[in-house]
Amino acid sequence: MFQVRFHGRGGQGVVTAAELLSVAAFLEQRHAQAFPSFGSERTGAPVVSFCRIDDKEIRLREPILEPDALIVQDPTLFKAVDVFHGLRPDGYLLVNTNRSFGDLQIADAVAKLPRGQARAVPASDLALKYVGRPLPNAALLGAFAALTKIVRFDSVAVAIRQTFPGKVGETNVAAAQAAHDAVAVAPVAG
Amino acid sequence: MLKQIEGSHAMAEGIALCRPEVICAYPITPQTHIVERLGEMVRTGELKNCEFINVESEFTALSVAIGASAAGARAYTATASQGLLFMAEAVYNAAGLGLPVVMTIGNRAIGAPINIWNDHSDAMSMSDAGWMQLFAETNQEAVDLHIQAFRLAEELSMPTMVCVDGFILTHAVERVDVPEQAEVDDYLPAYEPVQVLDPNDPISIGAMVGPDAFTEVRFLQHYKQTLALRLISEFAGEFKKQFGRDSGGLLRTYKIDDAEVLVVAMGSVNGTIKDTIDEMRADGIRIGLVTLVAFRPFPVEALRKVLVGPKHVVVIEKSLAVGMGGQLALHVDLALRNVAGAPQVHSVVAGLGGRPITRPSLHRLFRRALVQPWEGTHFLDLNEEVIAKELHYVRKVRRSGPTAENLLRRLRTGAQKPAAD
Amino acid sequence: MTNGTTSAAIQKLHFYQKGTFTVGNRLVSEADRSVQASIDRSNALTCGHRACQGCGEALGARYALDAALRAAGGNLIAVNATGCLEVFTTPYPETSWQIPWIHSLFGNAAAVATGVAAAMRVKGRPEIRVVAQGGDGGTTDIGFGCLSGMFERNDDVLYICYDNEAYMNTGVQRSSATPPAARTATTPAVGPQPGNVFGTGKSVPKIAVAHGIPFVATATVADLHDLERKVVKAMGIHGARYLHIHVPCPLGWGSASQDTIRLAQLAVECGMFPVFEAEHGVVTGRRKIRRRVPVEDYLKPQRRFAHLFTTEEGRKCISQLQAMADRNIAEYRLFDWEGDVE
User: Fold this and answer.
1) What is the DSSP track for C63-84?
2) Residue A190 domain-assigned?
3) C108 has a pLDDT exceeding 50
4) For position A78, which CATH number holds?
5) Same domain, B183 and B271
6) DSSP one-letter string for B150-179
7) How far, in whole angstroms, is CA C288 from its chain's centroid?
8) Are B233 and B255 within one domain?
9) How high is the pLDDT of residue A186?
10) Integer Cα distance of C151 and C241 in angstroms
11) Predicted local confidence at residue B419, as pLDDT
């Protein structure tokens, strides 16, 4: 079982991101379970969502305590919440930022992860460029596919198109493709 | 058709396949997505021949359903928590009038203190109202139970609640096989009311019944619930034939054959318990699970059959009868009343107000049942520090006042005692 | 002759029914005659029910429902709130209802009726009409939320409130329709402010008008022709409709059972109960007072107001009640000759 925890702020599409990832896994005939952090948080508040992916039925209903991967949609959250809590030592980290991990003061935590498993992607910038709105979730999923290879990019693209038919879906897929390529093509930093 | 879909939306689609004719909607977290989706389906024409009515309270929601059902329409509504309490009077009324309304409960705690998260307090509070109550373990089962619920309700002239864990199921996106319309039509015939308001055949419904017959009415209502015991199994069997899935029934068992400890639970926590059981069995502990689907009618016989044999039964439940203890545990005690060789029953209250029930906690709990079995009610993952501080305060002062506010004040100020005094 | 006890034997012929100003059936055209005068009247509420002697509600309900039944061509379903009407019409194991009838709860008649109407729509039987009915407690108090919701959605229901100004079924307790100063079991006539409080009052007909629903009317058992006319008019309209009928209660008011019609009449003539109708939020008609009387004439025959006539404070209460009546008269322009009081 592969478990992903999404961190973001209300209004950033954090819950949708987990759902999209689960749909991508579903499209690959796998079992997936996406769920929000069950709160009544308003726009702007820190929110968390989860996604489990497995090859067999997922029965577990506890929150994800030890994620295999973190997707952080808002880098300002590192100061607000304990984002790294429970992250497995062999885990992945994907951060939406155009700054360095050093700038974000998370270089120490990143150093504990296996080399190449922590990446920064300017997902909001890409979303702004392709979609016209700084909603980073779709782009991050493209990058996630490249970073972890847990799901194929094609599945992510189909999931995005299914959820957002028409132009919104297409532009989000373009943003996801750009983020995917940035991770897949560019050499691993540090 | 297999879909990766939010539980609430899957349920809405399943309910729509049952061709409800009147749907009453009033928002309360966490059932809202169900009626929102149904409303959308009525608007788009995906669900035809259906009146979707936005009402001004839960009391009205069920009252409208009562009127619609009495007038011969298949009626549905959904609620949770405070909403179920707000409609309490109508809950009893629908059952007393024998109206086969189906209602989803997105199980949620009851305040005060206000809490929007999952536990089973709401459903338990209405368990004696005369409705059938079926608890879903997964969203697949939630969908399937609705289809069975309409058939059961209409067969027995008895309203039915499908209880679905709030957020944990209602808001989870997972794989659900949403049946085809033709399959559902085969399984669930059109509603043909036994008694209906019709100018061509005027009847009076809901007249007063006095001491000379009230007991008989109640006895027969109770008797009908015992008939439901048989029908719930029967219809679940037919459901399996039609759809190929084990959904519903009175209860299900998991690895009970050689078990020395049996766990009894309702709802979504059964999944986490099964994973825990697999892990414990790998360590050589003989433990099994009884998943209770039907809480009303309460399957005494069926439970007795599976519970007699093992040494220990751990009843884990998301509800508490304040001043008494675990309600489900009390029910299990009843099932074992006067039974020779009955196991010891250990009561656990867990997951109140949405507290996660995790595998590490369950591991500790189930091991304890073997090595250090307890009497009374055990509260899983109780924060001993918070309790100790308040108990210390309670012992020190003569009138300690309201607990919730004391805790909040202490958490706010970090003080040892409530700040106000 | 002025002595009532000896005048009964010699009765002068009136063109009006005695004391009511209501034109008798024999003087009106065939079309305008009362539903009740018809040889084939329907008897929605048949004889044998257990209402008290002189019950205004039983009278009002029979006239209202028979008129509704005729207007609907026999296709009528009634929903009843808990209350006197419900209890006295369905003594176990009998029923006085000749129409399909359901009683659910005290506070949900409007909502249940909404459900019945929805079922008729979805079943493709729009010709079947729905009437909900309740007393003032079930309407202005506990059923008020459901009522307002039904109005606001403009559901196709005629709601009839039989207003006898207190919870009579439970033994005469105060409701929000109880007039100020009236004695009830929960507003006893003791202490410095005996009887019900002088609050702001709560005119549910006015509130209904404020919802802008297609038709609102008040009526009284003193004018059964008017009552029937309003029922028929209401039944000719679809959407939410509200009819508020003033129905004296001999038991609760402490009045003689033969005075029910007279008291209903006096309530109108003194201005305490304005009879009017409104369409889509606008008052379109009122029943003018023909012979204005002081409120004392209305209060005096009722034991629930007896305490007002024994003290100076009581006298002040009567003045306050008179002021209320005057305000009604002014507001609804019920009387053309202001100040022409006996």
Assistant:
1) HHHHHHHHHTTT-EEEEE-SSH
2) no
3) yes
4) 3.40.920.10
5) no
6) HHHHHHHT--EEEEEETTTTTT-EEEEEPP
7) 17
8) no
9) 66
10) 8
11) 42
> From the list C100, C103, C112, which residue is nearest B207 (CB)?
C103
Q: With 60 as the cut, is the pLDDT of residue C318 above it?
A: yes
Specify the CATH number for the domain of residue C284: 3.40.50.970
Indicate contact of A with C: 3+ CB pairs under 8 A: no
How far apart CA B389 and CA B86 sit, in angstroms, is 35
Q: Domain containing B13 — which CATH number? A: 3.40.50.970
Residues B187 and B277 in one domain: no
* Cβ atoms of residues C185 and C199 within 8 Å: no
In a shared domain, residues B235 and B365: no
Give the mutation candidate from C66, C123, C148 for the B interface (greatest B CB count, under 10 A): C123
The CA-based diameter of chain C, rounded to the nearest angstrom, is 64
Report CA-CA distances (Å) from B285 to B280, B281, B288, C260.
Answer: 5, 5, 9, 81
In-domain check, residue C12: no
- Let me know if residue B421 belongs to a domain: no
Distance of CA C326 to the CA centre of its chain: 20
What pLDDT, in 10s, does the model give residues B111-127? 999 999 999 999 999 99
- Count Cβ neighbours within 10 Å for each residue of B35-50 and write b for 16 or more, e otherwise: bebbbebbeeeebeeb
For residues C298 and C266, the answer to whether their CB atoms sit within 8 Å is yes
Average pLDDT on B203-214 reads 94
Q: Give the global pTM.
A: 0.94
Which positions of chain A have pLDDT values less than 50? 190
Tally of residues, chain A: 190
CA distance C214 to C280: 4
Structure tokens at C61: 């309900």
- Chain C residue numbers touching B93 (CB-CB < 8 A): 104-105
DSSP-based three-state secondary structure for C115: helix
Q: For residue B280, what pLDDT is reported?
A: 98
Note whether B392 and B322 are same-domain residues: no
Work out the average pLDDT over C107-113: 98
Establish if A89 belongs to a structural domain.
yes
Structure tokens at C163: 């207003």
Q: Which two tokens stand for residue C270?
A: 């003194």
Rounded to the nearest 5°, which phi and psi values hold at B59? -60, -40
* B261 shares its domain with B127: no
Residues 6+ apart with CB under 8 A from C301: C255, C256, C259, C262, C263, C266
**Confidence at C9, pLDDT banded by 50, 70, 90:** low
Query: Helix, strand or coil for residue B261?
Result: strand
What pLDDT shows up at residue C40?
Answer: 78
Q: Which two tokens stand for residue A1?
A: 């079982």
Same domain, B405 and B257: no
Global ipTM: 0.94
SS3 B203: coil
**3-state helix vs strand vs coil in chain C, percent to 5:** 40, 15, 45
Within the 227-256 window of chain B, which residues sit less than 8 Å (CB to CB) from chain C? Answer: none
Count of structural domains within chain C: 1
The token duo for C124 is 């493709």
Could you list the residue range(s) of the whole structural domain that residue A71 is in? 2-185
Which of B216-236 are b and which e, b meaning 16 or more Cβ less than 10 Å from the residue's Cβ?
A: eeeeeeeebbeebbebbbebb
State the chains in contact with B (3 or more Cβ–Cβ pairs under 8 Å): A, C
- pLDDT(C17) > 60: no
B221 and B76 within one domain: yes
A4 lies within 8 A of chain B by CB: no
**Structural domain total, chain A:** 1
Residue B212 lies in domain = 2-243
B160 to chain C, closest Cα gap in Å: 18
Given this model, what pLDDT does residue A182 score? 94
C10 confidence band (pLDDT: 50, 70, 90): low
- CA pair distance B310, B289, nearest whole angstrom: 11
